[in-house]
Amino acid sequence: MPLNMTYKVLSSHLVEGRLEAGAAISIRIDQTLTQDATGTMAYLQFESIGLDRVRNELAVSYVDHNTVQVGFENADDHRYLQSVAAAKGIVFSRAGNGICHQVHLERFGECGKTLLGSDSHTPTGGGLGMVAIGAGGLDVALAMAGVPFPMVCPRVVEIRLHGRLRPFVSAKDVILAVLEHFGVKGNVNTVFEYNGDGVSTLSVPERATICNMGAECGVTCSIFPSDDVTRSFLEAQGRAEAFHGLCADEGAPYDDLFEIDLSSLEPMAACPHSPGNVKRISQLAGMKVDQVLIGSCTNSSYADMVKVGRILEGRRIAADMSLGIAPGSRQVLMMITRDGTLEKMEMAGARILESACGFCIGNHQSPSTDAVSLRTNNRNFEGRSGTASAQVYLVSPEVAALSAIAGVIVDPLAQDDIEAPGDVPVDSFLCDDGMLSFPPEDGFRVRIIRGPNIGQPPKCDPMTDTIRGEVAIKVGDKITTDHIMPAGARLKYRSNIPLYSTFVFENVDPDFHVRSAALRDEGRASFIVAGWSYGQGSSREHAAICPMYLGVKAVMALSIERIHQANLCNFGIMPLTIVTQEDYDEICQGHELVIDDAPSQVRRALEGGLVEVRDLTNGRTYGMRLDVTAQQADMLIRGGRLNQIREEMA
Ligand code: MIC
Ligand code: SF4
């Protein structure tokens, strides 16, 4: 039977289950990646499993998210990460070496392999023909221990690309067109597979940009074929051996088809406050802009930087403009230093930022009050920039650079005095792995360094027979993990759960943590009630660990996004689906809820039964769905995945 690319890779890694959309399967993971913000917890969890060394083919630990180092906390995290990497057989990419997804694409990605990363933009690797999936840190810790990754076998949507992009139209506009069509919700357990004659016109970094922002649609991952373009990219990276051809068989089945004529696309923007709120740049042209930031794992490749440099060359940014540029990796930075691009940027008035996530996660460069900020990254959730009132628009590097000069949003297709930046072919990238530390064979001799900021993952208790408690918060639709667990200025507390927990829902309801902890201390549960698409965005498992620490026992939502759903199960919080809008309207904050015979109800849910939740405040009973696998049901009952794995390994 002919196979699509996704099922080819999945079938060669399948450990359990059948390849049928919707079925529970588990796959072997070849490569893992972590970053510092999710990595400390992942390695603490890995340590608690008790293995001497990682068991998967390649594990890489990147330091890229929090490199601001205000106070000792970040630096302590970096030390811990470096020492645990050396001790456990993990490659360590030091701060300054670049953003995990960009560096992984350049130096480690391998066609046809599986990659699991504790970051939701891990699917960037799909640009090299990998099945690259984002997950919580605990899932990645287990993959490093050689445990197969449990997942739902995805449905596969073919996105067929035709033709070629016009000058000034870029890969960012392709994925914005995809986002416009599919939206940010309702795409769980789906893979976007790119095919068609247009594929060969796109470079690997362009393909990576498209796969990267598939995460915003909520898909499991996105994948491109590995073809001659891929081969040339890997050869230019000095890694010809990482090439293995991959394409769909003739007549391969797909669950859906979306066709895009690349030549008909025009520059676009995702408007505040969602990557799915897509408009044409022509509709926004002329809007005053205060800040432009170019970089992030979406658009910080060498070609992106060269194009920006060509647009900025010989020009100066607007007088009241702040332009920041963060090259995606040390490789990119060294190459633009060597070819003169950096000088063009500096001459134009750009502020050169570290090769790190930085501004994208609201770590610095917060815009001024009410500012309009144009950015090339992938998320513009309200408040993520660090400024609650800022209006963030996501655009291509070309539009960003032109607008930085003009001080207003510029529609490049309406300009006839500016030459398009053209293609950027590269025969050979500058490869210097000097900022990577490869682990020694005798890692057991390495002392793991733990500063006072490095805590322990909190313990989770097994499920009680009766779960009784209160709705501690009720929220609406599209609550992101940035709402649940803010990053930015709070990021440095990722390794200190008791302290980080005091910021849960900080920008939604700053008193939540006090209420929830008080209920916990009285021996009662907290419940979170939410609308559609709860937990979109990041893979941060802290959005489950910290609520767990505060005593949250169930999230009841109209729908829950894939990675967050898995994280909730991993930490023993029931992900319940509210079945009707009326039920959602009926349950209010402060209501007293009871789940009787909870473990038996969880088991019955596996046979399709609804979980009964009694509302003592209004006398109603709600039947809620618990869409979990048998393994997840078991971990919920035992009090989380770590308890489960310890008992299995004992
Ligand atoms: C993000 O873009 O939101 C992050 C920060 O990279 C997160 C990971 C994290 O919260 O540490 C992600 O996308 O998974
Ligand atoms: Fe880093 Fe931003 Fe990419 Fe997340 S989306 S990995 S914060 S650059």
Question: What does it look like?
Answer:
α18 (562-570) links the parallel β23 and β24. The mean pLDDT is 97. With 650 residues, this protein is α/β, with parallel strands linked by helices. 30% of the residues lie in helices and 18% in strands. Alpha-methylisocitric acid binds at residues 37-38, 65, 119-121, 134, 361, 379, 487, 537-540.
Rg result: 24 Å
Low-confidence sequence ranges = none
Q: What is the share of helical residues?
A: 25-40%
Biggest sheet features: 7 strands, mixed, barrel
Strand content: 15-25%
How far is it from the N-terminal to the C-terminal residue, by CA? Answer: 42 Å
Can you count the beta strands? 27
Question: Based on CA inertia axes, which overall geometry fits?
Answer: globular
Compute the average pLDDT.
97
Q: Order the strands across the largest sheet as they lie in space.
A: 21-22-23-24-27-26-25
- Helical stretch tally: 22
Q: Could you say which structural class the secondary elements and strand pairing correspond to?
A: alpha/beta
Bound molecules: alpha-methylisocitric acid, iron/sulfur cluster
